[in-house]
């Protein structure tokens, strides 16, 4: 049994077809078919049923796939370990962070890493919506700090590190009702909802927590969104850590909306499985969230 046979086997299951596996692995379909046939002959097992248009795993194939997936993950881990042992300090490290995250929880880890590795240029990018994940999968970020929305979980390692609470707020100047009664969507339609543009492409534009039929303004980032809301020009959802002082002073009031509940989102540190982490990236990875979990 060879590693390339397991790779081809996993690719067929993941893509659903021999053709899809061939495209993923940049091989001919006949080469993939030959590889799998050799594997089946060596194992003396039929792994795929080929009666339908799309191949499906046989009962034996299902069991073999679970074990093969585990072995492939272990082999990738060994490669990553070997790469780390060979590695020197990276000249540059890129971190893409969700703009909703409270940076105060992350900066100590960044500061410690910077002091330990002064020759490494640390680049911190604040991203909206699916921006952190887009940068990670494009190879433009080594580590992402974001929620798991739209994340290809089979391709990444993800560990929870923080929680963010998003709460709808408005200036008192809008004269919106306060108290326990939920404000209906109809009541809110005459008020501008301020939303932020995503930085992860059209597939990551904001779709959750948008009230149907309401007026909308789009801004580029959360700082601009907060200023627009404070000016009494609209309302919108903001992270609690950005509005704590204003809610305490009364400059912003929390809203109880029918279609916009308070949302708590877990933030994860995320890195790609197929990209071996360097010395600095590994150290930063270990430090992120360590204080919160200690």
Summarize the structure.
With 294 residues, the protein is α/β, with parallel strands linked by helices. The protein has helices at 3-15, 18-25, 29-43, 59-86, 107-116, 131-137, 185-188, 222-230, 240-249, 279-287, 290-293; strands at 48-49, 56-57, 92-98, 121-127, 143-146, 156-170, 192-196, 215-219, 235-239, 253-254, 263-272.
Q: Major beta sheet, specifics?
A: 7 strands, mixed
Might you state the CATH topology name of the largest domain? D-Maltodextrin-Binding Protein, domain 2
Structural class: alpha/beta
Q: What is the mean pLDDT?
A: 88
Query: How far from one another are the termini?
Result: 43 Å
**Class of the largest domain in CATH?**
Alpha Beta
Overall shape = globular
If helices are DSSP runs of H or I spanning 4 or more residues, what is the number of helices? 11
> Over the alpha carbons, how many angstroms does the gyration radius reach?
24 Å
Series of secondary-structure elements, N-terminal to C-terminal: HHHEEHEHEHEEHEEHEHEEHH
The CATH architecture designation of the largest domain is: 3-Layer(aba) Sandwich
Low-confidence stretches are: none
Helix content: 25-40%
> What number of structural domains do the residues give?
3
Q: How many DSSP E strands?
A: 11
User: How much beta, percentage-wise?
Assistant: 15-25%
Keywords: DNA-binding, Transcription, Transcription regulation
Organism: Ruegeria denitrificans
Family: Belongs to the LysR transcriptional regulatory family.
Domain HTH lysR-type: 1-58
């Amino acid at each position: 049994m060879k590693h390339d046979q397991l790779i081809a086997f996993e690719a067929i299951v993941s893509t659903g077809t021999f053709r899809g596996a061939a495209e993923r692995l940049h091989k001919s379909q006949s080469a993939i078919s030959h590889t799998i046939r050799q594997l089946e002959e060596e194992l003396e097992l039929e792994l795929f049923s080929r009666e339908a248009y799309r191949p499906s795993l046989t009962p034996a194939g299902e069991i073999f796939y679970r074990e093969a997936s585990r072995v492939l993950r272990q082999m990738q881990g060994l490669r990553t370990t070997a790469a780390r042992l060979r590695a020197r300090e990276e000249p540059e490290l890129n971190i893409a962070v969700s703009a909703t995250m409270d940076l105060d929880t992350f900066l100590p880890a960044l500061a410690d890493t910077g002091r330990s590795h002064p020759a490494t240029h640390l680049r911190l990018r604040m991203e909206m919506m699916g921006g952190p994940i887009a940068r990670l999968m494009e190879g433009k970020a080594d580590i992402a700090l974001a929620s798991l929305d739209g994340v290809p979980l089979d391709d990444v390692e993800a560990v929870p590190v923080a929680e963010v609470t998003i709460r709808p707020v408005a200036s008192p100047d809008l004269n919106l009702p306060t108290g326990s009664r939920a404000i209906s969507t109809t009541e809110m339609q005459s008020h501008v909802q301020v939303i932020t543009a995503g930085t992860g492409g059209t597939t990551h534009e904001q779709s959750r927590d948008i009230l149907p039929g309401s007026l909308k303004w789009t801004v580029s980032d959360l700082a601009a969104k907060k200023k627009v809301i404070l000016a009494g020009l609209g309302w919108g959802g903001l992270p609690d850590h950005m509005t704590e002082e204003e809610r305490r002073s009364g400059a912003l009031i929390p809203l109880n909306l029918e279609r916009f509940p308070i949302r708590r989102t877990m933030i994860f540190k995320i890195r790609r499985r197929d990209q071996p982490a360097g010395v600095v990236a590994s150290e930063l990875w270990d430090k992120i969230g360590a204080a919160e979990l200690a």
